[in-house]
Amino acid sequence: MVATSGFRQFVILLYKGLLLRKRHYIVTFFELVIPVFVASILCIMQAQQTVYSDDRDFLGRKKGNLWEDYTTYKPSDPFEYAKAYGSDVEFVFTPDNDLTRKFVEDSAEFFRRRAEFRYRRTGVKGAPSEKELERYCVQQQRDDPSTIYIGTVFQNFGNELPTSLDYKIRFNTRFGTNFKTQLKYKMGAESFTSDSYSQTHFLAWQASVEGTFIQRRAAQEGKKVALEDYY
Q1: Helix ranges, the chain (H)
Q2: pLDDT given for residue 27 in this prediction
Q3: DSSP per residue over 70-86, as a string?
Q4: CA-angle at 210, arms to 204 and 216, nearest 5°
Q5: Whole-angstrom Cα distance, residue 69 to residue 89?
Q6: Between 3.40.1700, 2.40.70, 3.30.70, 3.40.190, what CATH number should domain 88-173+192-221 receive?
Q7: pTM for this structure?
Q8: If you average pLDDT over each of 29-33, 47-51, 174-178, 200-204, which comes out highest?
Q9: Which residues share a beta bridge with 167?
Q10: Portion of the chain with pLDDT greater than 70, in percent
Q11: Lowest mean pLDDT segment, chosen from 77-81, 121-125, 166-170, 222-226
């Protein structure tokens, strides 16, 4: 058998197909011409559609960049409620050691500055344990309902600042939560059924604690952070 190249075999197959098409010209007409004709009708119909306006296409879709008419919203200020709510605040924390106390004092100063607490009092008090923190806040809130008591439980706060911040903020029932509810970042506890925390000092204190932590860590690493861009 004489050897042939792949290209020659391909040409032979094309020629063979051409001979078959010549014998079956009616089949060829329906296989090629009719589909092309039907597709052409659809193209013609689309081309003949009337554009309703200069800024929309034939389907009514808006032309141009979809971002041209975007809506912007002002960022939420976590200190907005604290600025408007006139009441004294006491920050109770645990564990009660020198590092944590200095950290909470700095956080309270951050809170005073950003919440514009010029004529209202902010206090700081340590508790030996979370149970004692809870007991103190419940008792004080009962005796002095006009003052806001915010409990903060820090984890891994010993002799030096931890590399990551792990803590929880605790409120009492007048803010829509049970004081035994452990609130940390997201509000998903069973006893928490509303977003009333947004109308409290929760967000302001959370921003103060985290802002202070960022400043402390940045100072240790020799970096300067403009927190005003974020808080």
Answers
A1: 6-23, 25-28, 34-47, 80-84, 98-115, 130-143, 202-220
A2: 72
A3: ----PPP-TTHHHHH--
A4: 135
A5: 44
A6: 3.40.190
A7: 0.59
A8: 200-204
A9: 154
A10: 69
A11: 222-226
